[in-house]
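Entry:
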Amino acid sequence: MKDAQKQGLESNSLAVQEFLEEFETAFFNLLHGWCNNRARFRRRLRRLIPMLATIESKAELLEASFFTKSNSTGNEDFLITHFVISVLLEAMKTYLLLGFELELYHTSEYKEVFWYLDYLTHVQVQNMRKLEAKTTHPALPTGVKLQKKYLEKVAPTTTFSDESLMKISIFEIENCLARGLFRFLTALGRVGEYKMDSEDFGFTFGSNKARYETRFEVFLYVSQPSYVPFEDYCKISSMPDSTPLDLFKSAEEHFVVANNIANTTLSRYTTQVKDEMKEYLNQVIKFTKQNQVTAKIASNKYELAIKNKNLSTVSSSQKKIPKFDFSILLHMPVVKPM
């Protein structure tokens, strides 16, 4: 077994060296980007994201090749690949969030951006669980045949360190916030309280598809997580079985969950949470409370309109634009319907 592993490493030594050099360059450029102003950093990310996507594909091929040549059992974790994906996901997420900081997005784009952030942070949570998990196997009897039979009967135990759980909690908060905001805006759009289509503004140039593809074209080169074409986005985000009332309540529930995770993280890891993280978690608590209230008010308003049979089709000219308040969180707004 050791000879096979050595042979696999030697045959891949050149590929491994090239991979490490490419990843070192990309990672250094990513770290150096934080030293630039936000606009320049975002331009750097447009070049770095395709580069990291290529490196991720190489990492996956290298690990698969190594496991094949070493006659491995097929229970591999692909930890190098997961690590590269974690760096890539953070770069993609930062690229989108900087758009809010630089005021690049039109308000009608917010729904699409929050949907994509929901998608990225969901993958980020799953990837981080695979990367940070500590898998402990029970003591195995000697002998290959006995080991295989024993493994089929006894499941390994997966645990996480406190630091890993804190990381996962932050990603779960971001996922709940993005999903809550997406569903909140979708519900507002359906009841005429949010202009979310190009047609609502009377744009004569472009279309929703052109806008979407232009905004997310940098992700076209990424295989994991895979780019979501506009047609697939429309199918996934349409949610035809959900009424506006369902979406309002779902948004409110996601804000509640984010609030609970933030409170739990602060109380459970009091001594381990740094001051900067404490400030962020307290901001999340304040942010979610305000969005809970606005979502509840919008839900009650719509429910009252149903009872009074005061629902009517709203034309594009009658649709409104909510107020988006970024005073609490820099990249996530408190939505205040007009």
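The CA atoms of residues 229 and 235 lie 10 Å apart.
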